[in-house]
TrEMBL record, chain A:
Keywords: Oxidoreductase. Residues 76-332, 356-405 form the Glutamate synthase domain. GO terms for biological process: glutamate biosynthetic process. Belongs to the glutamate synthase family. It holds the Pfam family Glu_synthase. This is Glutamate synthase.
Automatic annotation (TrEMBL), chain B:
The keyword Transferase applies. Keywords: Glutamine amidotransferase, Transferase. Residues 2-298 form the Glutamine amidotransferase type-2 domain. This is Glutamine amidotransferase. The keyword Transferase applies. GO terms for molecular function: transferase activity. SUPFAM superfamilies: N-terminal nucleophile aminohydrolases (Ntn hydrolases).
TrEMBL record, chain C:
It comes from the Bacteria. InterPro entries: Glu_synth_asu_C, Glu_synth_asu_C_sf, Glu_synth_lsu_3. Coiled coil: none annotated. Residues 63-200 form the Glutamate synthase alpha subunit C-terminal domain. This is Protein GlxC. One of its GO terms (molecular function) is oxidoreductase activity. Gene3D superfamilies: Glutamate synthase, alpha subunit, C-terminal domain. It holds the Pfam family GXGXG. CDD domains: GXGXG.
Amino acid sequence: MSYHNPPTTPRRSATFDEYHMSEIRRAAATGIYDIRGAGAKRKVPNFDDLLFLGASISRYPLEGYREKCETKVTLGTRFAKKPIELKIPITVAGMSFGSLSGPAKEALGRGATIAGTSTTTGDGGMTEEERGHSQTLVYQYLPSRYGMNPRDLRRADAIEVVVGQGAKPGGGGMLLGQKISDRVAEMRTLPKGIDQRSACRHPDWTGPDDLEIKILELREITNWEKPIYVKVAGARPYYDTALAVKAGADVVVLDGMQGGTAATQEVFIEHVGQPTLACIRPAVKALQDLGMHRKVQLIVSGGIRTGADVAKAMALGADVVSVGTAALIALGDNDPHWESEYQKLGTHAGAYDDWHEGKDPAGITTQDAELMKRVDPVAAGRRLANYLKVMTLEAQTIARACGHNHMHNLEPEDLCALTIEAAAMAGVPLAGTSWVPGQGTF
Amino acid sequence: MCGIVGLFIKDKALEPQLGALLSEMLITMTDRGPDSAGIAIYGGDAKGHGKITVQSPNPDVDFKGLDTDLGAKLGTKVSAIVKSTHAVLDVPAEKLEEARAAIAELRPDVRVMGSGEAIEIYKEVGLPEDVVKRFDIAKMSGSHGIGHTRMATESAVTTLGAHPFSTGPDQCLVHNGSLSNHNNLRREMKRDGMKFETENDTEVAAAYLSSKIAHGENLGQALESSLNDLDGFFTFVVGTKDGFGVVRDPIACKPAVMAETDQYVAFGSEYRALANLPGIETARVWEPEPSTVYFWEH
Amino acid sequence: MHASNLATAPVTKVNYAPKVFDLSKITLREFNQALHDITDGATETNWEVLNPKGSHAVAVGAEHAISIDVQGSVGYYCGGMNQNSTITIHGSAGPGVGENMMSGAIFVKGDASQYAGATGRGGMLVIDGNASSRCGISMKGIDIVVGGNVGHMSAFMAQSGNLVVLGDAGDAFGDSIYEARLFLRGEAKSLGADCIEKEMRPEHIEILKDLLARAGITDVKPEEFKRYGSARTLYNFNIDNADAY
């Protein structure tokens, strides 16, 4: 090597990084956009950028295990004759049968029931596995109306009109390579083995004024008994929450961009929608402006992992949080136990997101009869119950440390933020300051 | 997102009932929009007279002496009829523009809702029933009228955000739906010198039509142009001095029902709005086609 | 044929006076509750609804084989999710008439607004007049017979069942259709993506003959119709078809 002619170290482009170059090659070779599940993977400001202050002298903490910290929550108090009661402020989000296997659905029902909370159907209708094993079951009413029938509507405990999902606000389009097995095809009235087109709007209403009439119809059919939820993606949370309330919702479900187990275009998952953290305050503001905070309950989902996340979402004004991806992990998805099989699929335990392809070694996001045997619904349900209970305990621990005898008494003033971004999004001061950036807007 | 009603009277004998019929139609549509309500009534054909409907948040202060102050400024006689937060000023038709400028100077807080030879516009925050009562709409007579009840989507719930929007003489527009390119259009039209009072998508649509008309298109042509240039979902009902038009976007998801008899042409977002009109049982009832301009003129 | 299509046996008409519900005197809630309170073996199976005046959600969620005559025009979703009952609307129907119906029959004597029979899974919807846009959208087994024309995007993403149109169809007829059968007597302004004309074979004539008979239509012949269905080119993605999506 000549001293006078030193070589330049080969430099990789930050713009054309390894991932994007592989994606360009993949698109060029296949002529298909990338489809996957598992929600946004890019780093976005999230609950990790918030901290609780805790109590000391100016406020008094509550004794753990001794002094009460209530976790119960009632949903549907606005119009429904039969509101639903959850023992814990954590519920299981809608995930479709077809996407999930029967045993996985059963496990979700078992786990949620042990923990005293609800689970939710998904695109594809209600299965016996989940109805039979879920004490409280929310029935999703989706644009596709796959598997939709009045009998299931009546035997649900609540109805969730799905307008958007965190993975794809405003999205419909084309889902390739859906695993349409015989049973799934029958439930969806579709030919076997075809791609699935998915509508972005409901087939028989558009806009909040029509939604109000759709909600009236659902209430009339179910004799005004069941809470009606409206689920929106974290896109324009202030307006969408306000309009769901004006249209007559009992409960608003708000799904941030990290949410969504649904298979959709990667470009959609990563580039459309707002982070969950950024969605909560605008939605709560809309409820407050309408005098409906705590009267119309707010369920927040999208990237909830721990009891700390639960407590932070509730401090920002949510009534309940909802878990999807985390529930699948609790059941055993992406478990290192199956690492060698994940590697055969060209991925790793922890990175597997082709949930729509039906090859899930963990037997959860599959319709393969052999693979799904790997899910023991009783044991997996128990794991989910444990996880939900641990999260609740964690959240209670924090609430007590902040001096609250009810989870709902957590407030934004219990929090500070580590970054300016998180401070602005959550509307709480930057740590060590009284500065709340971005106030007065949403 | 809203409820729309419209009534174009063909049989003069029905004109005294215009306000009453429209009021009832609008009240029926309350569920479609709880935020604000408004109505435009076209009537009065006194030759040479012009009308300016103005609104004030402080009517007691602003409307006191407005007729004499304005008359003095214009050097002519001006009369005013005050109805709650609104007042209709009667000025010579050829002095309409001058009068609008004078009002802005005399009473800076007063807003012009609309002006022309036939149009009066009344709109406020609140339910249709309260709004029509407040302005005594049921007693009004006229040749045609349009009503709107609003469920605000993205812009503020205010008096100025209520429909109808009027951006040209004797023109008004109401809208059900939601436009998705109104911000860009507003910026373009602002560069062309147009003024906007709100952030409302519908005001952009109204201004768009007025601008097309100002550039020589007739209302029918302007509505045709809107099908190319406006992005989003809309059912529009528009009024002019002599006419009444309807157009829906190509996707046509927002509802619309029309009825025609020898006595009238009626529009409703839903059939409910038309259900109590005289002779509705035997009327021709139909749904306007997408991307098709419908227009009636006296 | 889809099993639920067989459940459209005519309701036995009983000759005593109908049970009358006047919506100018009772609320929609009271009427629908009465409808849901019917138990098996109810004897009063002949109902009449007066003064609907465009009300929404009239006679939704019926479960029993009764006949309901609605005297006047209705708003959105009349007969929504119907099972077993026969509903006759003596007037026009607003958006989504018979949406997601499972079985039974709905007859509209006037016109129907958009989304007629949306996502219907069974039973029969007969519209004497015109149906506007998106008639039979996402239909999943229902049989729909329209005496007049249908608007644009009718049978959009239609999955199964039969749509029979005696008049003309608007733009994008049968767009993104799956396995539903479309029978059109007039002309379509345009066909939607992946929808093509198909051969009318003897078995289709038989199916159509049965549909027309059940709809009470006697003055047109099955041979006057053309059949449309899916070209199935969009069933599995090919980037060169991207313009069709």
